[in-house]
Design a protein that fits this description.
single chain; 285 residues; alpha/beta; Rossmann fold; 5-stranded mixed beta sheet
Length: 285
């Protein structure tokens, strides 16, 4: 990778800042917002998550314009956040003003599960979007397993185990999920190989393993998103293919370029909530 194709690691921020000794509670409760000018000096940017503490109280907020405003409570499919990072992630997914959500972080932190819960809720329950599109690069980990039988959707299903697991956990049985995918009416599995030339409208698009995509592919994906659609990029910058680095990852590039953009939001979900074993593996292996 040439040096000009690399992005400095100056932007990927946790997406959350803690403010101690907050003393603007009267204004907060009365107006449901507080000006950034009244907060400690910091390089605040749009859609930055804020944990506010002071006088024995604590609340969650987000930067909007020149103020911080309350974080919205959102429980898609009755899924409740297990930690602060998940609460902020759900707010970014819920927020209609944010067209691009970037959730990065460790394995088992809930990136895929929360995104699928949001997608299924918005498509099947609220009918706000016409389709949930799940996109992934068809690059294997380990040895190739050869050709898979069936048509395109049949061939893709084995690559989408993490998404299928999430749908099952949300109460959708395997038969229904498979039928949704095969008829591609409400849920479409999209190999990134076939995204070129698409114009995707009124859909939620979830792209997994985005850390292994270079910035040209990321640009190609983002430019396919049309009116009424929301793009969700998922990735873990600690699990990058050997021929790529954090500097050359398209996920790093879009994090840098999207910082302080009103329709882009991101948070880093560092805590694994899958199991004690998974948490131990993230810390030690």
């Amino acid at each position: 990778m040439y040096l000009k194709d690399k992005t400095p690691l100056d932007a990927p921020h946790s997406g959350i800042v803690v403010i101690e000794d907050f003393d603007q509670w009267d204004m907060w409760y009365a107006e449901k917002r507080v000006s950034l000018d009244l907060l400690p000096k910091y390089d605040y940017y749009q859609n930055l998550g804020i944990v506010v503490k002071g006088a024995g109280c604590k609340t969650h907020a987000i930067v909007k314009g020149t103020d911080i405003v309350p974080l919205q409570i959102y429980h898609p499919h009755n899924v409740k956040p297990k930690n602060t990072e998940q609460a902020f992630a759900l707010n970014l997914l819920w927020d209609d003003s944010i067209d691009l959500v970037i959730l990065s972080g460790s394995a088992g932190s809930g990136k895929t599960f929360l995104s699928i819960a949001h997608g299924m809720e918005q498509v099947f329950e609220r009918k706000k979007y016409k389709k949930l599109i799940i996109a992934k690069s068809m690059t294997p980990v380990g040895r190739e397993i050869g050709f898979l039988k069936g048509d395109l959707q049949d061939k893709i299903i084995p690559w989408m185990g993490s998404f299928m697991d999430s749908m099952n956990q949300l109460g959708y049985n395997q038969k229904d999920v498979t039928e949704y995918i095969i008829d591609a009416k409400y849920v479409e599995l999209l190999p990134l190989t076939f995204i070129q030339g698409r114009s995707i409208t009124d859909s939620i698009v979830v792209v997994d393993e985005a850390q292994n995509l270079d910035k040209n592919i990321i640009k190609q994906i983002v430019t396919r998103i049309g009116v009424g659609s929301k793009l969700i990029l998922l990735g873990d910058l600690t699990q990058i293919f050997e021929d790529m680095s954090e500097e050359s990852s398209g996920l790093t590039h879009v994090l840098n370029k999207g910082l302080n953009t009103e329709f882009v939001g991101h948070t880093i979900m560092a805590k694994s909530v899958r199991s004690d074993l998974a948490s131990w593996a993230v810390r030690n292996l």
